Amino acid sequence: MKIAIISPYYKEDVALLERCMDSVLSQTIKCDHFLVSDGHPQEWINTRAVRHIELGKSHGDYGNTPRGIGGQLAISEGYDAICFLDADNWLDPIHVEECLNSAISKYGSHINCDYVISRRRLVRPDLSIMDSTEEPNHIDTNCFFFLPGSYFLIPYWNLMPKEFSNIGDRIFRQKISMYKLNFTKNLNITVNYLNLWSSFYTSRGEKPPPDSKPNVDGTYGFKMFSKKTDVEKTITQRLLGLDIPNSSGT
User: Fold this and answer.
1) In this predicted model, what pLDDT tens digit does every residue of 21-53 receive, in sequence order?
2) Helix, strand, coil fractions of the chain, as percent rounded to 5
């Protein structure tokens, strides 16, 4: 099988990128790693055994543009499975094998399964693991393992209007749920997510790390939508592939 792992990157430190790349290289099933620079290419990456795709500018959409471009390139090159891995995250060595085994276990063959949902562990910058319960019905972008039956949805990462990009994973989760696709879950936790969201720390009485981030405004896209003309609203909904019933996003 040909398996592609797509990693958009921006200005991440070398150590983070190396950890990400090493985790793909360490997979028990061989994978091809696509690193897609979002306007700030790091030339040293060309010395590593990866596909380095350099975009000419940054796009300010939380990695949606490089993510979608890398995914569509993998589709056009005939890859049998595709997953996304943000540059600051990393995979357990068994991740890809576990995803494939989960698909085969439920459907008899990976080709009969359209996608697999993995689980993630939230990791502090010091690599200690946070005791946390995943948000109900939330699927982080890093936890999708796409098989050919779901490839038609990958271009939506590029079609998604920029004002919705800060909740892109939630938009995509809603989009994929519209279709009666065959999916299963990898019950083992195999994705490592570097958690820099300050709210996760303050809610536990912890001091957020120095480079922590505030929560995004999940209502921003809907507020912008409410200000559009009727024609602009129609175009936005076509690009999202979703109906937006009102400006609150409910």
Assistant:
1) 999 999 999 999 999 999 999 999 999 999 999
2) 40, 20, 40
Strand intervals (E) in 31-181: 32-37, 51-54, 81-84, 90-91, 115-123, 144-146
Residue-level length of the chain: 250
Q: Are strands 90-91 and 81-84 parallel, antiparallel or unpaired?
A: unpaired
> Rg of the chain's alpha carbons, rounded to an integer?
18
What are the backbone angles phi and psi of residue 140, rounded to the nearest 5°? -70, 150
Q: What are the structure tokens assigned to 233, written together?
A: 């609203």
Angle at 235 between CA 65 and CA 74, to 5 degrees: 30
Distance of alpha carbon 236 from alpha carbon 248, whole angstroms: 15
Is 177 within 8 Å of 162 (Cβ atoms)?
no
Cα(109)–Cα(33) distance, integer angstroms: 24
CA–CA separation, 12 and 3 (whole Å): 24
Q: How far apart are CA 181 and CA 177, in angstroms?
A: 8
Judge whether 145 and 83 are in contact, CB under 8 Å: yes
State how far Cα 161 lies from the chain centre.
17
pTM: 0.94
DSSP 8-state assignment for residue 213: B
